Amino acid sequence: MSETRRAGDPELTTYRDVQLSPDFSELRRRFRRFVFPMTGLFLAWYFLYVLLADYAPGFMSHKVGGNITVALLFGLGQFVSTFAITLIYVRWADKKFDPDAKHLRDQIEGDHS
């Protein structure tokens, strides 16, 4: 598609206008301020598990009760933390992100209610 046809397309202009708007920049900043630290936290937790499994097998094989080891608890903790992060994100998005994203979507789609 040529640049002249793109420039004349009102729908593309609307998308570009929204992308350049302060509201969109703020929404993107808010999203990144939540997602990047949460991702970093999860990756640190995951790599701690992997590193302990590799470099501290004595600690990870320590039995907590019966056949339950520290490694098993860490492994199950990975699943629990994944679900917890998902729950936290959904609640955060419902309150702090989705209403503003809906407003921007309404602007693009032309619904100004």
From TrEMBL:
Lineage: Bacteria, Bacillati, Actinomycetota, Actinomycetes, Propionibacteriales
Alphabetical UniProt keywords: Membrane, Transmembrane, Transmembrane helix
InterPro entries in alphabetical order: DUF485, MFS_trans_sf
TM spans (from-to): 34-56, 68-90
Species of origin: Kribbella lupini
Superkingdom of the source species: Bacteria
Keyword Iron-sulfur: no
Name the UniProt record assigns to this protein: DUF485 domain-containing protein
UniProt xrefs under SUPFAM superfamilies: MFS general substrate transporter (SSF103473)
Keyword Lipid metabolism among record annotations: no
